[in-house]
Specification:
CATH superfamily of the largest domain: Spore Coat Polysaccharide Biosynthesis Protein SpsA, Chain A
CATH topology of the largest domain: Spore Coat Polysaccharide Biosynthesis Protein SpsA, Chain A
Structural class: alpha/beta
Order of helices and strands: EHEHHEHEEHEEEEHHEHHHHH
CATH class of the largest domain: Alpha Beta
CATH architecture of the largest domain: Alpha-Beta Complex
Radius of gyration: 21 Å
Distance between the termini: 52 Å
Strand content: 15-25%
Length: 341
């Protein structure tokens, strides 16, 4: 049986210190049938030069599988991904963020799933979170312990927010025909949520195939995230209705996840306070006590705190929680450093 073919889309912007490791992680795979489409989103550092040097010093068989596209104007992450999709020729699509990497064996594992399940549209896989500075690592879903076909997005709703831990069937994405993702919405969540809720069924691969770096200056930690959350919710609702995939309860759960995950990124800005107030208004319109069917206890507790706590108490709880995590990291690093001596 013919092996599946993969197109790996790598959007880059000012990642001169990371991009070579990302590209290396594709070419060390024990698999041959893939192409790499690198889209540089008008970087102002030496990212483009690093990519060109990587191509130049690669073996001919590897360099011939790389297509390098340079954008003259910075359009944002989603725009770069969409540009890469235009050039993708293979059956399955992966998106690799240029400061992350694939773990060895991922393509072979994906191919095995595809050969045994020819009708699936999306494969999700597990990943590691790595803190850029402490180098602490944790498995994202280490206690899941399940592989196989998933017929309900509610079962996997907590993994729905990322694009990079998924492998998409290209014909499915073509039929999905999502409009361009505007810069006013989040880059990952609208795309992946609309895809997951439209797919007839998908597959969860319990394999740690991806290394995700948490960087303090990453887009996900910028203040502009707050203003993009509600635009994302509106985009998702509109597209799910267009695709006849809208379910009110699922949509509420998704909205709760998007708001809760960003409420945890507290800072003392007026923008955060306004975001909190808007979340509280939306939470009041939810009646989730009997409606939540997915195991998302932490976010449900968060939802209740927003409703019940005054702002000063809610803010204090977040600060205490963040401080506890900080000191736990410090203690863990101290113990590890002592043990290595």
């Amino acid at each position: 049986m013919k092996n599946s073919s993969f197109s790996v889309i790598v959007p880059t912007f000012n990642v001169q210190d990371y991009v070579v490791k990302a590209l290396d992680s594709v070419f060390v795979q024990d698999y041959e049938n893939f192409e790499v489409i690198v889209v540089d989103d008008a970087s102002t550092d030496s990212t483009a030069q690093k990519i060109e040097e990587f191509i130049e010093h690669s073996q001919k068989s590897d360099s011939e599988r790389i297509k390098f596209i340079k954008c003259e104007v910075n359009g944002g992450l989603s725009t770069a991904r969409e540009e890469g999709l235009k050039y993708a020729k293979n059956e399955w699509i992966l998106f690799l963020d240029s400061d992350d990497w694939y773990n060895e064996g991922l393509f072979r594992k994906l191919n095995k799933v595809i050969q045994n399940n020819p009708d699936i549209n999306i494969i999700e896989f597990n990943f590691d979170f790595i803190d850029e500075y402490t180098r602490n690592k944790r498995i994202a879903y280490g206690n899941r312990g399940v592989s196989g076909i998933r017929k309900s997005a509610e079962e996997n709703i907590m993994t729905a927010l990322a694009v990079w831990n998924k492998c998409f069937k290209k014909s499915f994405l073509d039929n999905l025909n999502l409009p361009p993702i505007p810069r006013t919405v989040l880059d990952d969540a609208p795309f992946s949520i609309c895809a997951l809720l439209t797919a007839k069924y998908f597959y969860w691969l319990n394999f740690i195939g991806y290394g995700y770096i948490e960087r303090n200056n990453s887009l996900s930690k910028q203040l502009s995230m707050y203003s993009r959350v509600f635009s994302s919710i509106a985009f998702i609702e509109k597209e799910l209705k267009r695709l006849n995939s809208y379910d009110e309860i699922q949509f509420k759960v998704i909205s709760l996840n998007l708001m809760s995950s960003n409420l945890r990124r507290h800072n003392d800005s007026l923008e955060y306070k306004n975001f909190y107030d808007e979340c509280k208004k939306m939470f009041r319109s939810f009646d989730l006590k009997k409606e939540i069917k997915t195991p998302m206890i932490y976010n449900y507790r968060f939802y209740k705190r927003v409703l019940l706590y005054p702002y000063w108490l809610f803010k204090l709880r977040i600060k205490i929680s963040n401080s506890e995590r900080f000191f736990r990291k410090k203690i863990k690093n101290f113990i590890l450093s002592r043990g290595s001596k």
